[in-house]
Amino acid sequence: MRPPPGFRPGMPQQPSPQQQQRPPQPGMPMSPPFVNAAAPMYKQQQPQSGMAGTFSGSPVPRPRTPPALDGTPHSVPGSPPLASQSPTISAASSAPQSPITEQHHRTTRKRMYPEQIAKAYMDQPNTAAGPMDSFSSPAFQSQQQQQQQQSSPVPTMTAQGYPGTQPQQQQQFQQPIGNQVNQLAGQFGGMNLANAQVAKSIPLLGAAPFIADLNAPASPIILPQNSSITNSPYANAEESYKCCTVNAIPSNESVLKKSKLPLALVLAPYRTSDGDGSQVPVIADSVIARCRRCRTYINPFVTFVEGGQRWKCNLCFLLNDVPAAFDYDAQTQQPVDRWKRAELNYSCVEYVAPTEYMVRPPQAPAYVFVIDVSYSAVQSGMVATAARTILDSLDRIPDEQKRTQVGFITVDSSLHFYNMNSALPEPQMLVVSELEDVFLPTPSSLLVNLSDSKEVIQGFLEKLPDMFKETANVNNALGTALQAAFKIVSPYGGKIVCLQSTLPNMGTGALKVREDPKVIGTAKETPLLNAGSPFYKSFAVDCSRSQVSCDMLIFGGQYADVATLGCLPRFTGGQTYYYPAFHASRTEDATKFAHEFSELLAEQIGLEAVLRVRASRNLRMSAFHGNFFIRSTDLLALPNVPRNQNYVIEVAIEDELRGPTACFQTALLHTTCYGERRIRVVTLCLPVTNSVPELVSSINARAVVSYLANKAIERGLTSKLEDARDAVVNKTIDILGVYKSQVLGIGKGSSSPQLTVPDHLKLLPLLALSLIKHDAISQTSRISTDARSNAINLIRTMPLQLLVPYLYPNLYALHSMSPEAGEISENGVVFPTPLNLTTERLEPHGCYLLENGQDIFIWIGRGVVPQLCVDLFGVKSYDQLHSGKMTLPVVDTPINRKTNLLIGKIREMRRGNYYPAVVTVKEDSDPSLRLWFLSHLVEDRSDNVMSYQQFLQHLKDRVSYYEQKKGGIKDF
């Protein structure tokens, strides 16, 4: 039965149906936790510089003085002015700027730098230059849409006393009359939309992207009234667990084809929680209500009928009996209120599985370490660092029930096994030199109980660094060692953790150096990105059948063939970590490896798992992307379920959908690392529509980019990287073209002077450009195939919270931080306002921090104030700074304390085991290091790839005539 109106099942009441957005679930924020969305606004003081001139076809006239595009948030048309913007423009500022005034500004800037800046820092740390007059032309108020530019900046002093710039008044330009006509046509074209909520349009050309919205919530899910049977605000899935590329489902295949939109799910069902209060509810009473036909688990979107005695499945509409114990608590032996049951109030729940969900008793965690002990591994310090990390992490390995087992194999040209029986005073080494037909020298004691043999294991790890320190063996038989590890662990199931430094060159699975600098960046590079030996894929399939997963930690002093070795984690649900040019003598290398390896060992993984996604009738899962093995048409096998790993699943529509909503339910059957069999169920409900404008207004840009990234990688590995880049661009053109024709109502072949997009898609072109410029598929000859393969592995597995900054990094100005930036507030650490990724933001005297979740760069301009070098780095001048990896020293100054706090927060604020190292880059440092940093500034033109404004112009030209292609453009 349905609860009476206004009934509260012991939790916050559900918002009204008119409210477009549900509150987040516990620990499931609407935006990633590292975003200080609730932090108070503060005065923005950021470096600025001139903007490049607009391109041909742009409606924005070139100003006399090139306007600067800094990180100041651009106002959305029709919205009130932001706190950092001036709400009015004085009459004096409307006068045209004379060439004399322009020359005066240039002279003033030249005269202030660098003597006056240094003097101001030393003598007047709290003074700032007075406001400078800004000049603007009359703005044409067409639907309150205005393009915002800024005039040339004048250096000034921030509150900390480091040189910055004074924010200027925005400069506004007229919109062409043709733009009004197009907008008016769009209004008439949209009049026939049936209750479609059309997002307001945003012009893109001539303006910097508003990157502050990169982490804004996606389009809200607007469900019909009474879709959920309880008032719980947590009934629908939160984006970090499961989301769809569109927050409305097409009613049939023809609507989907007409919309040209991708339909796919983005999953991270086993993500970490955000705190003690965000744990997934666990149902331990063994009452599991499932549909008799489609096996769907009962959820908040079912319907109770016949006085509450039966429930109607929301996927296949079959009537099922309610279990007798559904309203009864076996522990207290008293009736309970069914409306308070977690499965009717939460989209994500876990069931404790009864015995019928088990083929065998829950397996114990088992780890077999395969450690390369060849010459390069020992000389780089990898062996010693790995041994010390495992020794320090023994207490962190999940072993609550004292059942965890471990084993060790070291390998060079021979295999070295270790008998670690707890009765022995020290481990026994057993050497096997036969590589053709591997065998185990002893049938037992190669895999031992961690608790029972802990002292023996500790003794082994303490001696391991010295056991091979005199080796000169440069060979490695990895394939044979993997076969031996598989024989040890396959009867039980578990994990093989492989630490590899030397390219396998002996025995089974031997590899050769395939990298050819001449083919990098060309169509012939694709074979280098695929496996070089069939052994590793076939071995991974055998592992998957026996519930064995593989994690690869690859140390690339030279060519390591990451593309081939990465096959093992890909098909067994594992993870790949790559450490190029690793050497433990560099503290930064050793710290990064030790931290990530320790977190990997301590991870509370899921074991012997299978994952299935069920959907409403006439919806079918058609393709899968991620690290797993497809056991059947819709069943994914994951011997190991790492935390925070991402999966993308494409959805096909087979026939007309029935009902006003469609549901997707993910069921992950797994064994926890504590020996309990559980089923994690995540349910997502979306409205069904036959309106293309409604589909467009419901697009989730981040989910679309995740889909595009996985499809691009698939295309690049099967065809060539150029086809992958073209497909990303063409799909972006499709989406924008549909908006133009189906929402704005602008006819086929009609050209407009502006590229107009809905507000929620204003950053889609930026993310698409970032993707085609990313190391995974970019057109460049400067990146090695190992680095490209590692980027592919990362994109394939990263959750959305990690993927977005990995594609479009965050750039902060350290020398002009506001007083509250870098401090701890009630909402956490306050980050500076991010800047757009373009060299126009880099002042010659500036110091900047750029981070993408994998690396942290600190860029120092050659004109940096000497006192800033003293305060931040503890050196006297720019010349004494060293480029490359470093550990930021601790200096008792505000800027050093703030920067160290920001770096620490960056390393811990996102889900995942990654620990980005700090790399300092001087403006005149090594060219390769400098280019590495500049390659992240995706809004600039680089390697014959368009800048952001050029890319927008290209999209506008193609969107104007995209309907005429008729199959002439290849996309996904």
How does this structure look, described?
The protein is an alpha+beta fold. The strands form 10 sheets. Strands 7, 9, 15, 24, 26, 27, 29 and 30 form an 8-stranded mixed β-sheet that branches. Mean pLDDT is 82; it is low at 1-161 and 165-196. A hairpin with a 4-residue loop joins β26 and β27. It is globular. Among the domains are: 266-360 and 607-689, Sandwich (Immunoglobulin-like), CATH 2.60.40.1670; 366-604, Rossmann fold (3-Layer(aba) Sandwich), CATH 3.40.50. This is Sec23/Sec24 trunk domain-containing protein. Belongs to the SEC23/SEC24 family. SEC24 subfamily. One of its GO terms (biological process) is intracellular protein transport.
List keywords for this structure.
972 residues, alpha+beta, Immunoglobulin-like, Rossmann fold, 8-stranded mixed sheet, 38 strands, 19% strand, disordered N terminus, SNARE binding, Sec23/Sec24 trunk domain-containing protein, golgi apparatus, vWFA_dom_sf
